[in-house]
Amino acid sequence: MKELMIHVERAVRPVRASGHRKDRMRRELLDHLTEIYQAELKRLGSEAAAREQAIQRFGEPADLTRELQDSVGWGERCSFEMERRFGWRAPESAARYTFRIGVQFFVFINILAALLFVPVLIFDSQAPDLMIRLRVGTAFVFLCSADLFLLGLLYFKMRDRLLGGLGAQRSWRRVAVYGVLSMLVFLANGFSFGYLGIGDAAEGWTLTAYSAPFALGVPLWLGLIAWFYGPGQIRHTEWECLKIGD
Amino acid sequence: MEPIGGDTLRGHLETMALAVLENGEAHGFEIWRRLEDAGGGALRLKEGSLYPCLYRLEKAGLIKSAWEQGPNDSGPRRRVYRLTRKGSCRLAQGRVEWRHFVGVVGNILGAVT
Questions:
Q1: Is B47's CB within 8 Å of A68's CB?
Q2: Cβ contacts (< 8 Å) between A31 and chain B: which residues?
Q3: Rounded distance, CA B26 to CA B57, Å?
Q4: Beta bridge partners of B79
Q5: Residue pLDDT tens, chain A, 246 long
């Protein structure tokens, strides 16, 4: 089975298309190749011979890559470029990926903030609340970047424990631990925003109290995303990490 | 009879795929099986080539597809393809073009021999 997967992956991996589209190609091509293999196994009675015959009937990966590439539109190519820059890249770890996303967001939002603040500094530099606005904005940027990293990492940990994917054992206890940690991150967010942005610990505690009911929804939200999108993400990761040689 | 290879079939595979889907929806392997049956075993095309062809047809709106559960509920889901109205029109047009082509080439070959 692994040899068949490698044959399919050699054809699909170089295609410049979105991960979603490539996963569909992988599933369909592997299904077909497996059907040929089973038919050949029945006919020839030898696994090695059946595999060789199935691969021969299926076609050369390089030719298939070219044909598959021609079958995808420019929208898919754009998605590929976006995913290459901002998506997960094999064999990146979850921690490294979420850290990279946090840094990318930090850089992007800073550029955006600079563009927005330049006119304010030019036309409204004497505004009494300018420093407050800058402080709130800075706190927001820092906290959002940190959230992307921490909540992202907790999501991947929770997903793998919930679904038992990528070598992780299924464990409800661990899922609960990551859920509680995600709530704490959310609550710490409220406090940090009040303390860093407004500069007052009392405001921080008030914001924490206000955000408490929403914090309960965070693990639920992460769990639902993992439940619906996790299997596809895990399958995608497994394919992308498959060693296919040169 | 010599088998018909990829170069000869190129350009006709899409119309042939539309033709076999006229008999009812099917997943990729079933489409291939129908093509082989209809071709009497004379088609010699790499089977993987069917999928880029199906994707091109889908992109053009001539067929549409959806994941469906296989015959065994616990088995993997399969992508099932079906002909659209636009695909039926394209197939009818493809048949007319083919008859015209066969007629013209047949006349020439007949005249030469």
A1: no
A2: 27-29, 76, 78
A3: 14
A4: B67
A5: 789 999 999 999 999 999 999 999 999 999 999 999 999 999 999 999 999 999 999 999 999 999 999 999 999 999 999 999 999 998 899 999 999 999 999 999 888 888 877 777 777 767 677 777 778 888 888 899 999 999 999 999 999 999 998 888 999 999 999 999 999 999 998 888 888 887 788 888 888 898 899 999 999 999 999 999 999 999 999 999 999 886
- Tell if the CB–CB gap between A71 and B56 is shorter than 8 Å: yes
**Pairwise CB contact (< 8 Å): A31 & B78:** yes
Give me the DSSP letters along B5-33: EHHHHTTTHHHHHHHHHTT--EEHHHHHH
Question: In this structure, what token pair is assigned to residue B85?
Answer: 């109205």
Q: Whole-model pTM above 0.90? A: no
Among A residues 102-141, those touching chain B with beta carbons less than 8 Å apart = none
